[in-house]
Amino acid sequence: MGSTFQIDATLTAFIALALLLLTGVLNWNDILQEKGAWNTLTWFSILVMMANELNELGFIPWLSKFISRDLHGLSWPIVLVILILFYFYSHYLFASATAHVSAMYTALLGVAIAAGVPPILAALLLGFFGNLFASTTNYSDGPAPILFSSGYVSQLDWWRLNGILGIFYIISWLILGSLWMKVCGFY
């Protein structure tokens, strides 16, 4: 009902927290003991805000036009491969899958469609790779830091191995996945 009453989801969460505190269900010490949750909330909100600001300040539209201009005249399969490679490997520069997808999915989808890539194929492949790049770094999404902190794999090995695994993902999803989507009639 937030959109009906024009109440932001963040405000709703803080109202709920205030009610829990006022009714005694939680006390302030309960909240302070959840350091990991507050740490995650703080960093996650900053990363999502930064992705939003990149879009509002015009960086993402500029990037979209820049990429589109450089890819103009190429056949759509080549454009799709270049965009997927860029989308996947640029995740090394992001500390959050949500921030990355928020910042780049729409822009790259627009470039793909403008280049003649079938819209459903472009949307699905970018969506799939928005999940597949979660393994690229030890900070790439929520579970990655937990898995990394187990200490079984060094940071260098994590990055190197997932850079190589990325090649497997790209070949599998772009070739086999695209063929399967064609058989299923998605494009």
UniProtKB/TrEMBL annotation:
Superkingdom to which the source organism belongs: Bacteria
PANTHER family hit by this protein: DICARBOXYLATE TRANSPORTER 2.1, CHLOROPLASTIC (PTHR42826)
Record-level GO cellular component terms: membrane
GO MF term list: transmembrane transporter activity
Xref: InterPro entries: CitT-rel, SLC13A/DASS
Topological relation to the membrane, as annotated: Multi-pass membrane protein
Transmembrane listed as a keyword: yes
Name of protein: Di-and tricarboxylate transporter
Keywords, in A-Z order: Membrane, Transmembrane, Transmembrane helix
Compartment(s) of residence: Membrane
Statement: the UniProt record of this protein carries the keyword Ligase: no
Membrane-spanning intervals of the chain: 6-28, 40-62, 74-95, 107-129, 158-181
Stated family: Belongs to the SLC13A/DASS transporter (TC 2.A.47) family. DIT1 subfamily.
